[in-house]
Amino acid sequence: MNKKVKIILLISIALNLLFVSFHLGRVLGFVKPPRPNFKEIMHKREQDVISVLPPTKQELALQSFNNLRSLRKSNFLEIRKQMRAVEQTVIQRKFNKEAFLNEMTKLNYTSNMMRERSNLEIAEFLSKLTRKERIAIVAKTKQQMRMFKKVNSSTKQD
What we know:
The chain is 85% helix and 0% strand. The protein is mainly α.
């Protein structure tokens, strides 16, 4: 065989092995893709909202964020409980379609209740603010979303 063909074949085999080993490493858990730290993101957003508000309303914002955190935690635990119930229904010896649908309905109800409680807490917080303060929060949120889109688009191009 021609020397150039051998070199090209060796390079392509090496690249294929590298590609396969990378994906095998991902499957086995050795290589993990970067994930956003949601706690950091939420804390940054909370701090941004608090920074926009006057000092008299900052305590109110902190209290609302603490309430939302405790709601999320309790709702998360409730949803996990529902997920275990769905899991138990799925792994039973004989699959019961009605029981599965019933557990999924309960899970959806729990999830919707979680969103509703969070929305009520947010609405309660916003109702205590003036129009000017609400506008400042919306402006800050739009600014964050623009920055988030820029960061995402630049990381996708890399």
